[in-house]
Amino acid sequence: MSDALAGLHIPEHVGIIMDGNGRWAKKRGLPRTIGHKYGAQNFRKVTRYISKCGVKVLTLYAFSTENWKRPPEEVSALMKLFKQNLIDLVTDFRDDDIKVRFIGDRSAFNKVLIDLINESEEVAKNREGMVLNIAMNYGSRDEILMAVRSLCRDVQQNGLDPESLTEKDIADRLYTAHQPDPDLIIRTGGEFRLSNFLLYQCAYSEFYSTETLWPDFNEEEFNKAVIEYNKRNRRFGGV
Ligand code: IPE
Ligand code: IPE
Ligand code: MG
Questions:
Q1: Atom of ligand 2 nearest to the CA of 63
Q2: Residue in 21, 75, 80 to alter for ligand 1 test, most ligand atoms within 8 A of Cβ
Q3: Is position 158 annotated as part of the catalytic site?
């Protein structure tokens, strides 16, 4: 961990909306897919650094349920990159003891990718370091819909009383079940929106947006976000 963070409160759960790969490439006169390639490389570096800072859970937004709308060439280049990165992930992060998990609807991917996703989770399942949630074909509304379906089934088939339901019953049916809510959400690329990321979990998260495009996001940028986070007064509705 850098000296810049000495004595600061490190957020337990950080979410990152890794945006701006396309613009990064365009600025350099390159195709958008090259931006994704550099973005993917950066993801490994940044993840390692964040784990060394003492963050317990890191959730990275890699592909949304809406990103299928992109031109087919871009979607297929992204799928290829995911595949390549997952092959490396099987052994990667071992020395850092990072536990890799995937959140989102993996059934939409092809069989090779699904197998790699399962395998990456399997090899990392006994690790005890930072939990890394990679959000792929993730959409918060889709996640909430899945939770609602599961609750309806329990009411219909298992005699669950709707009046007995609590907020925890919903949280326990989300992909992030039993994880702390995010403390800090970072978005690169300068936009101020969540784009369907962790809507239920973000009720009291602190939001930080930086103009820096994802392939340029680095240790110093992460430190800046944590320093800013330390200036926030989190009241959770109290005084
Ligand atoms: C984020 O970068 C990566 C994905 C959504 C897969 P973008 O591809 O959205 O980059 P911009 O926002 O167009 O620059
Ligand atoms: C959000 O970025 C999704 C990911 C970073 C994976 P988008 O580029 O898809 O978001 P919008 O379209 O600007 O809201
Ligand atoms: Mg974008």
A1: 6
A2: 21
A3: no
Count of beta carbons in the 10 Å neighbourhood of residue 80: 14
State the Cα–Cα distance between residues 75 and 68, nearest whole angstrom.
7
Model pTM? 0.98
Catalytic-role residue among 21, 42, 67, 181? 67
- Domain residue ranges of the chain, discontinuous segments joined by +: 9-139+180-229
Inter-residue contact 9 to 184 (CB < 8 Å): no
Fold of 9-139+180-229: Undecaprenyl pyrophosphate synthetase (3.40.1180)
pLDDT of residue 92: 80
- CA 167 from chain centre, in angstroms, equals 22
Could you tell me if 184 and 14 are in contact, meaning their C-beta atoms sit under 8 angstroms apart? yes
Which protein residue's CA is at the shortest distance from atom 1 of ligand 1? 19
Q: Is 193 exposed, middle or buried (0-12, 13-18, 19+ CB in 10 A)?
A: exposed
| Paired strand residues for 136 | 63
Question: What is residue 17's three-state secondary structure?
Answer: strand
User: pLDDT tens digit string along 64-81?
Assistant: 999 999 999 999 999 999
Is 133 considered catalytic here?
A: no
With a 6 Å cutoff on the Cβ, whether 61 touches ligand 2 is yes
